[in-house]
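Tokens for DUF6481 family protein. Go.
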Amino acid sequence: MASYKDPSFQDRTALAQQAREKALKLLAAKKAPVDEAEVARRKAAREAKEAAEAEKRAAKKAALEQAKAEKKAAAMVPEVAKPTEEELKAARDAKYAARKNRKK
């Protein structure tokens, strides 16, 4: 009766290593050759995309800076004096008086 350790551990690992190497050789043989024109085209496309993204980031940053500057400038402008309660009451009374005079 054969032992369960008939192929030893070293034998099994050696076979597995050989199988891995054979698979890698087959995979390398299947691999398509590198087309330099395609690589250059992809590189140019990637660089163009990165440049567009950088430009977009710069525009967004400039817009934020401009908004901050406008907000700061708006804070520097003195506020227009708000009418007091008495002035509001006087304006309301004048409006009501004008309406009364129109009805007569």
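Residues 35-97 form one domain.
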